[in-house]
Structures are given as structure tokens and as C-alpha cells.
Amino acid sequence: MHGPHVCILQTSFAKRDDTIAYLTARVPGVRVEFITDSTLLADVRAAGGPTQAVIDRMILYARAAEISGADLIVNSCSTVGEVADIYEKEVGIPVMKIDAPMAQEAVSLGTRIALIATVETTLGPSQRLIEKFGEEQGKRMECTRFLQNAAWDALQNGHPEEHNRILLENIRELDKMGFDAIVMAQVSMRALLPELKDVKTPILCSFFSGYDAIAKKLSEIAEAKRG
To answer: What is the distance between the alpha carbons of residues 144 and 67, in angstroms, rounded to a whole number?
Structure first.
């Protein structure tokens, strides 16, 4: 009997090892595979949103994941989160968004949310997801966006320490502004968390809440296979 098989759709080649380690520690026998297209993010940024070509490519990747035997597809990039709503209708296996549990957690903490990102195309989908969950709870969410393009540029130019410095400084400022939660709109920001233990406002990162929910779903799939 094979363990559950998850296929993660990515827009970046970064940080695969810790994803595999996190899931294999929680789901015995899990098979973790990736389909990565690093041109997706560039195309969405250039167009200001997902183009039909981006949507068509992601539908193909989702179908490929299903054909490869995956039991579950994970959409790991917030920028193309709304594309997942389209391609999940094209496959017969479940699709999970990495940032959905984080958005639900944000709603549970209050209505005033600071949303921080280094890529502008992440902010809209992240805000709409939080607002959608808020609406389901009868809450009117107030998301304030904070875009740090300079941090993205620093990272692209090979200066991760400058990327981190800009974001840490910004998050410490947000901590003084009375928000109910600070939402890191990109999985990559989780590297900052050890440096932010002094921040009083709850800081949400999609990696941990997202992969915890994904591990739970994979365990349920494994149980169903055994049954």
C-alpha cells in the first residue's frame, strides 16, 4: 500500500527541502512532488494579474498532477491563488491553497489586518481571500496593504539580509499601529519569524498553518486508502 501522494504547484524553485521535511515528519510514507514554473510570477506581474495563458498553463499542470497519481494538489503561491479556483474544477482530486488556513486565522483574530508583501500581485488575492472568509463569518474585514518592493529587489539582487532588514523594520512599525493581526502574504517571509519574537501583534505566516492543514488532509487520505 502506497502512502498519500501530494503535488505542489510552485512559481519558484526556492525552499523545497523544508516543505518535504515538514510533511514527511507529519505524514508517514507521504510522497511529495513538485511542478514548478518560475515564469508564472513574472507573467502575472507584467500583466498585473493572471492572463489566460497563465490560467491555461496551470490547468495543464493540475491535470498533469492528477495523471501522475497525485491524491491532492497544493497551490503554494498566493499570486495565483484565484487561478486555483479555476483549475480545481478541471480535476477530480482535491485542491488546497497554502494561504487559506492563514486567511481564516486572520478573520478569527479580528477585523483590522495589516497585509505585508514584497510583490504587489500577491496583495489583491490575499486581501480578497481574507474578505471572503470574513464575509462567511459576518465580519467586514479592513485590510491595509503594505508593499515593500525594495525588499523584493534586494532579494532578487542577492541581498537576503537587506530584504530581511527592510521587512523586520516595517513589521516592528506595524506592531505599534493597533492591528489585530499582521499577515505575511508570502510563504518566503517565514524566515523572519525567529527575529520577531518581541512583536506583540499576532504574526501569521501561511507555511505552518497551511502545511498543518495539508498534513491533516493527507492523513485522512491515507486512512481512507487503508480502509
So the answer is: 41
